[in-house]
C-alpha cells in the first residue's frame, strides 16, 4: 500500500487537521466565554464543535471515496533523535475515516442529548455550575479520540490512547464527591485509571520493541519491514502483538482487565454511552485492525486474541444476567460485545469486527441513552410523587427515595415513556440479533467467520448470543412491562424532545445500519480493502444465520417465561436465583474473579509480607538509596563550588597573582614547544 | 652602545619590581606607580630591539603605549578619587567586598 502525500493527490486532504481543531476550538470558546452567554451555551458550543468535526469527517470520507489509497498529512516534526524521526502526521484511509465518522457522528448525537440530559442532571445532583465543565471534558474526549484514530504512527496514537483514558477518568469521577460513602465515584474513576495503566504498560512495551526493532514508529515502516523481521526471529512479532493485546484488554475491557468498565458506570449516562460503549472502548479493536499486518504474521497471537475475546463475550454475557442496575446490565453487555469484536479481529475477520464496532456504536449508544432517559423519567417521577405526598413543590426527591437505576423499582414504563420504550425495544432487538436490524448482520458475520475458524469459538459465541437475547429480554420486561413496582415508576414521565430526537436518530441507524455490509453487496468489505490487507472474503452462511436468529428468539422467549409471565414484586429475589441458585450466585459474584484480585493484589497491599516489601522499597530503597544518590551528587557539587569559591577572596592582589600564574604557565608552554 | 643583554636584564628587573609592587603593596597609588614601572620595562625592551635591528616600528609602539598609559592613569586616578570619597581610604585590601 503506497502512502501518498496530499500535495500530490488533493491538497484538500489537509482538512484532516480541522477534525481535531474543531473540538479544540470548542474547548477554547467554552473556556474563554465560560458560559457567560447563557445557561446552555456551553452545551450548544460543544455540540457545534463536535458537529463541525463530523462535517469535516464526511467531506474526508467523500474524498477518500474518490481516492481510496491511504494519504498521510504531516503537520510537522515532533521528535528527531538519531535515526529515529517521529512526525506529527495523520493518516487518512478508509479505516481511519470509518472511525472518524463513527466517533464524530455518534459523538455529536450524544452531545446534543447531553445538552438536555446534563441540564437536568446538574439540577438533580445539586451543582448547576458543573454543566460547563462537563462539555469541556466531552469535547476534550472527541479531540483525543480523533488523535487516536487519525494517527499515522504508534506514538501519536499513544497520545490519543492516553488522552481518552484521561477523559474517561475525569468523566467517571464527574460527580467525584458522590457515590458510596461519598467517595464511590472517585474510587471508580481511580480504578479505571489504574487498570488502564496496566494495559498501557503493554502498549509501552510494544512501542519500545517497535522502536528498537524497526527504528521507526510509523505504520508504513513497521508494516513494510514486518516480514523481514519475521525471517530474522519470529518471536519478536509474537511479543509485540501480545503486548498490544495487553493494551487491548485494558482499554477494551477484556478478560482479565475488564473490571473497571462496570464501575465506570458511575459517570453520567452520556459518558457511559459515548466513552464506555460507543467509542473509547472500541479503540482496542481499532488498534488490532490497524495492526492487521503484524497480527497476520503472528498467528499464535491471533489465536490468543480470539480466545480472550470469545471467553470475555461468554463471561460478561453471563454476568449481565444477574445485574439489577439498568446501566450495569448494559456495561456487561458492552464487555461481551467487545469480546465479539476482539474475537473477530483475532481470527482475522477484520471487516466483521469493524462492522460490529460500527453497528454496536449505534445500538449500544441508543440503549445507554434510552436508559438515561428512563433514569431521569424515574427521577422526575420521584419529584412528582414526593410533591403529591407532601402537598408542595418538592425540589429534591424525597429522602426515602429509591435508586433510580435499579430495575426492581421500575416496571410498566411502556405506557408512561412510549418514545423511550420504542427506541429501547429497537436497540434491544438489534443487540439480540433479530433479523433485519443492524446487530443481526454484524453478529452473524462474526459467527460465520467463527464457524470457519474453530467449532469451539463458534459454540462459545453462539452461547453468548443466546445469553445476550436473554438478558436483554429480562431488562425489557423488568423495565417496561408489567405493573410499576414503585410510586416513582408510576409517576414517571417522558423526556423532552432534545433527549428523544437523538434517540430516534440512533434508532433509525440501528435499524438500517446493516446495509453497510449486506451479504452479497459487502460495501464495507470493498471499502476497507484499501486499508486492511490481507483481507479474507467473508461468506454468508445460511445455517449460521438461521441458528443465531433462532437462538435469539429462544433467549427472548425464555426471558418472557421467567420474567414476563408472572408479575414480580419489589422485594422478590430474581426468579433465576430460586431456580438455579449456585449458577446465579456464581455469576452475580463474577465467579469470584474480582474477589480473587482483591485477595491477591488489593488486600495484600496493606499487609505483610507485601507491605514490608513495599515499605522497604519506599523507605530503604527509594528514600535511602536512590534519593541519596542524588543527594550525594548535590553535596559534591556544593563542596566543589565552595572549594573554587575560596579562590575568589575579594583581594585584587590575589587575582593579579592568578593572572601572573596563568601568564607564566602559558609562557612555559610556549617555550617548551 | 652597551650590549643588548644589558638592556634586557634591566627591563626584566624593572618588570619584576613592578610585579612585586602590584602584588605586595596596599596603597592604590603605589600600585599604579608599579604598573607604570612594568609599562616602562616593556617600553625599554621595545626601543632596545628597535635600536638593535635599526627599525622604527618599536619606537612607534612605545608612543602608543605611553599615550594609552596616560589615558589609563587619568581614568584610574579619577576612580581613586571617587573611591576615597566613598571609603575615606585607598587601601585596596579594604576593597574586598566582591568575592565568591
Q: Give the biggest sheet of chain B.
A: none
Structural class of chain A: mainly alpha
End-to-end Cα distance of chain A, whole Å, is 66 Å
* Chain-averaged pLDDT of chain A: 86
Q: How large is the share of residues in beta strands of chain A?
A: under 5%
Cα-atom Rg of chain B, whole angstroms? 17 Å
Number of DSSP-assigned strands of chain A: 2
Radius of gyration computed on alpha carbons of chain A: 29 Å
Shape of chain B: elongated
- The chain-level mean pLDDT of chain B equals 90
Helix content of chain B: over 70%
Spell the H/E element sequence of chain B: HHH
Low-pLDDT regions of chain A: 391-399
**What is the assembly state of the chains in this entry?**
heterodimer
Q: So what's the overall shape of chain A?
A: globular
Compute the number of helices of chain B: 3
Largest interface: A-B, 13 and 12 residues
Largest sheet of chain A: 2 strands, antiparallel
Fraction in helix of chain A: over 70%
Which characteristics define this entry?
heterodimer, A: 673 residues, mainly alpha, two-stranded antiparallel sheet, 29 helices, 2 strands, 72% helix, globular, B: 100 residues, 0% strand
Amino acid at each position: 500500500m503506497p502512502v501518498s502525500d496530499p500535495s500530490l493527490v488533493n491538497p484538500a486532504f489537509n482538512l484532516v487537521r480541522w477534525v481535531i481543531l474543531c473540538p479544540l476550538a470548542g474547548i477554547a470558546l467554552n473556556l474563554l466565554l465560560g458560559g457567560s452567554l447563557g445557561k446552555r451555551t456551553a452545551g450548544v458550543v460543544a455540540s457545534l464543535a463536535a458537529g463541525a468535526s463530523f462535517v469535516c469527517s464526511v467531506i474526508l470520507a467523500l474524498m477518500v471515496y474518490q481516492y481510496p489509497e491511504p494519504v498521510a498529512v504531516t503537520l510537522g516534526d515532533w521528535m528527531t533523535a538519531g535515526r529515529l524521526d517521529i512526525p506529527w502526521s495523520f493518516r487518512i484511509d478508509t479505516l481511519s475515516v470509518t472511525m472518524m465518522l463513527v466517533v464524530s457522528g455518534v459523538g455529536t448525537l450524544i452531545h446534543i442529548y447531553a445538552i438536555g440530559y446534563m441540564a437536568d442532571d446538574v439540577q438533580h445532583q445539586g451543582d448547576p455550575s458543573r454543566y460547563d465543565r462537563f462539555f469541556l471534558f466531552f469535547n476534550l474526549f472527541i479531540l483525543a479520540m480523533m488523535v487516536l484514530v487519525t494517527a499515522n504512527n504508534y506514538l501519536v496514537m499513544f497520545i490519543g490512547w492516553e488522552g481518552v483514558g484521561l477523559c474517561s477518568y475525569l468523566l467517571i469521577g464527574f460527580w467525584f464527591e458522590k457515590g458510596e460513602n461519598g467517595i464511590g465515584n472517585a474510587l471508580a474513576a481511580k480504578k479505571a485509571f489504574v487498570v488502564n495503566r496496566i494495559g498501557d504498560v503493554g502498549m509501552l512495551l510494544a512501542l519500545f520493541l517497535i522502536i528498537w526493532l524497526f527504528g521507526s514508529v510509523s505504520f508504513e515502516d513497521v508494516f513494510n519491514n514486518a516480514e523481514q523481521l519475521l525471517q530474522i526471529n519470529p518471536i519478536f512479532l509474537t511479543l509485540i502483538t501480545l503486548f498490544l493485546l495487553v493494551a487491548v484488554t485494558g482499554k477494551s475491557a477484556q478478560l482479565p482487565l475488564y473490571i473497571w468498565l462496570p464501575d465506570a458506570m458511575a459517570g453520567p449516562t452520556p459518558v457511559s454511552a459515548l466513552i464506555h460503549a460507543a467509542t473509547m472502548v472500541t479503540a482496542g479493536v481499532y488498534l488490532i485492525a490497524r495492526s492487521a499486518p503484524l497480527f497476520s504474521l503472528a498467528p499464535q497471537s491471533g489465536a490468543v486474541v480470539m480466545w480472550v475475546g470469545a471467553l470475555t463475550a461468554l463471561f460478561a454475557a453471563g454476568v449481565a444476567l444477574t445485574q439489577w442496575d439498568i446501566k450495569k446490565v448494559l456495561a456487561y453487555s458492552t464487555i461481551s460485545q467487545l469480546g465479539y469484536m476482539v474475537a473477530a479481529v483475532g481470527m482475522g475477520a477484520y471487516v466483521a469486527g469493524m462492522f460490529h464496532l460500527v453497528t454496536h456504536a449505534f445500538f449500544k449508544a441508543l440503549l445507554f441513552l434510552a436508559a438515561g432517559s428512563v433514569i431521569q423519567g424515574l427521577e422526575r417521577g420521584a419529584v412528582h410523587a414526593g410533591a403529591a405526598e407532601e402537598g408542595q413543590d418538592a425540589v429534591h426527591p424525597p429522602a426515602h427515595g429509591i435508586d433510580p437505576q435499579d430495575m426492581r423499582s421500575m416496571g410498566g414504563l411502556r405506557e408512561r415513556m412510549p418514545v423511550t420504550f420504542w427506541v429501547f425495544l429497537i436497540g434491544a432487538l438489534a443487540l439480540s440479533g433479530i433479523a433485519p436490524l443492524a446487530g443481526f448482520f454484524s453478529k452473524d458475520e462474526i459467527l460465520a467467520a467463527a464457524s470457519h475458524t474453530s467449532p469451539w469459538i463458534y459454540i462459545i459465541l453462539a452461547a453468548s448470543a443466546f445469553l445476550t437475547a436473554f438478558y436483554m429480554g429480562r431488562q425489557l420486561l423488568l423495565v417496561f412491562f408489567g405493573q410499576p413496582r414503585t410510586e416513582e415508576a408510576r409517576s414517571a414521565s417522558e423526556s423532552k424532545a432534545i433527549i428523544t430526537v437523538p434517540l430516534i436518530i440512533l434508532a433509525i441507524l440501528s435499524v438500517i445500519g446493516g446495509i453497510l455490509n449486506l451479504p452479497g453487496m459487502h460495501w464495507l468489505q470493498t471499502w476497507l480493502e484499501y486499508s486492511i490487507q490481507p483481507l479474507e472474503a467473508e461468506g454468508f452462511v445460511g445455517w449460521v444465520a438461521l441458528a443465531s436468529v433462532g437462538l435469539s428468539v429462544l433467549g427472548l422467549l425464555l426471558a418472557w417465561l421467567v420474567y414476563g409471565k408472572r408479575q414480580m414484586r419489589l422485594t422478590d429475589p430474581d426468579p433465576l436465583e430460586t431456580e438455579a441458585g449456585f449458577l446465579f450466585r456464581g455469576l452475580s459474584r463474577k465467579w469470584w474473579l474480582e474477589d480473587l484480585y482483591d485477595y491477591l493484589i488489593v488486600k495484600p497491599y496493606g499487609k505483610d509480607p507485601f507491605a514490608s516489601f513495599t515499605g522497604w522499597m519506599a523507605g530503604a530503597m527509594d528514600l535511602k538509596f536512590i534519593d541519596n544518590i542524588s543527594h550525594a551528587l548535590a553535596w559534591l557539587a556544593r563542596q566543589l563550588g565552595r572549594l573554587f569559591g575560596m579562590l575568589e577572596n575579594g583581594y585584587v592582589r590575589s587575582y593579579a597573582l592568578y593572572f601572573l600564574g596563568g601568564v607564566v604557565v602559558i609562557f612555559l608552554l610556549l617555550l617548551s614547544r | 652602545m652597551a650590549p643588548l643583554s644589558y638592556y634586557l636584564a634591566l627591563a626584566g628587573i624593572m618588570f619584576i619590581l613592578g610585579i612585586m609592587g602590584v602584588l605586595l603593596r596596599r596603597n592604590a597609588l603605589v600600585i599604579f606607580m608599579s604598573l607604570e614601572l612594568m609599562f616602562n620595562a616593556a617600553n625599554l625592551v621595545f626601543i632596545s630591539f628597535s635600536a638593535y635591528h635599526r627599525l622604527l616600528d618599536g619606537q612607534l609602539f612605545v608612543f602608543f603605549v605611553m599615550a594609552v598609559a596616560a589615558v589609563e592613569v587619568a581614568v584610574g586616578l579619577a576612580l581613586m578619587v571617587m573611591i576615597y570619597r566613598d571609603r575615606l581610604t585607598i587601601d585596596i585590601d579594604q576593597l574586598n567586598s566582591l568575592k565568591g
